[in-house]
Structure formats: structure tokens, C-alpha cells
Amino acid sequence: MNKVPIPTLERLATYLTALIELNCRKIDTVSSSDIEQATGINAAQFRKDLSYFGEFGRPGIGYDVEELKARLARILKVEQAQRVLLVGAGNLGSALIGFPVLKAQNFHIVAVFDNNYNKIGRKLWDLEIRDIAELAEVNTELQAQIGIIAVPATAAQQVACKLVEAGVKAILNFAPAILRLPEDVVVRNVDFGQELAVLAFHLTES
To answer: In CATH terms, is domain 6-75 a member of 1.10.10.10?
Structure first.
């Protein structure tokens, strides 16, 4: 598993999203061409990505949607609910809690934290906003290992350290900041400004 390229894992998550949608539409079997149409990822690439994990599908029949969905969920460790802590109860945090794809892929935000006393104690969707000072104590019970950072860049490193101290081993960071954490902590960065700048560049190129 450690030798699987990160882009392959990213595509597996894309395939899983497509399969969840197909399953909801009561579609029983698909071909690699169907997956290409649903995801925009080349059918040959799809087959190559699956080959890292063994044999899939049946010649002349294709892939059983329910079976493939279940296998990809096991590979990505989302066959069971993954508990997630969210730090940052602003607009982005609110959007993330209400984002239906997270629950569809078995990621459940189970607690939200902030340091703004005007927010602490209020409800964000169906969760009470907790004081970030309580993070470690709360997670002693919840045992979440994934954290999301949705705070300004100036607070991101401190928040990340608090998450790690609370037992979090994987962090999705929306703050435009480089986090310095132990090597055993996995960090994925989402920089909206960077992505929009790349899009703007391509607009001028075209």
C-alpha cells in the first residue's frame, strides 16, 4: 500500500464517488468505459489503478457496482465511519459540515471547535461549537484520527499542534500555511487561492 502513488489514491476516491452515485441510481454493472464517462478519467488508467490491488471485474460482463464500491471503500479505509474533528466555525466550516458528499463517503464530522467566545456554545448545524481548549479532552472520548483545519493562516500551526496532541494522525488543511508536524502525521493541503490562480493563468493562455 505504501508503494501506491498518491495520484492513484486520489483517483480511487473519484471512482468511489462515481460508484456511490451509480449505486444510488440502481445501476448494477458498469464497464471501464462507463467509469471514464462518469469521471473523465481514461478507461485504461482506471484499469491500471485497480491493478495495484488485485483482480476486479469479469470479462464480457464488467464490474459489479456494489462489489467494486465495497472493495474501494475497504482499500481507502472508509468502509466504516471515519470520525472527523473540525476546527474553525466560520463560513467554510459551516459549508463543510453541511457538505453531503462527506457523509456519503462515510466521513462524519463529530465535533467542531473555535476560539471565538461569541460562537462557543452555539449550534453549527446539529453540532455545538466547543472551545478549542477542550479539544484533547473531547477527543479522549471521540477517538477521531482525522482533523480539518478551517482557520486563518496565522492560527493554523497552533491548531495543527493541538490536533496532533489530541491524537489526530491525518489533517486536511484549508489554511494557506505550511504545517510543521511529526513525520507520522499525514497532511493534505487545499489552497483555494492557488487553484484559482492556476485557473486564471490558463484563461490568459487560452
So the answer is: yes
Q: Reply yes or no on whether the pLDDT at 202 is more than 90.
A: no
Classify strands 127-131 and 107-114 as parallel, antiparallel or unpaired. Answer: parallel
Cβ proximity of 105 and 20 under 8 Å: yes
| Residue 87 identity (one-letter amino acid) | V
- A 10 A CB-CB count for 7 gives 10
The CATH architecture that domain 82-194 belongs to is: 3-Layer(aba) Sandwich (3.40)
> Which of 72, 70, 103, 83 lies closest to 10 in space, CA to CA?
72
Query: Looking up cell 510543521, which residue turns up?
Result: 180
Using CA atoms, how far residue 183 sits from 144, 164, 169, 177, 187, in Å, is 19, 11, 10, 17, 10
Angstrom distance (rounded) from CA 85 to CA 171: 9
pLDDT in tens, 32-88: 999 999 999 999 999 999 999 988 888 778 999 999 999 999 999 888 889 999 999
What 3-state DSSP class applies to 29? strand
Q: What kind and span of H or E run contains 130?
A: strand 127-131
Cα(200)–Cα(195) distance, integer angstroms: 9
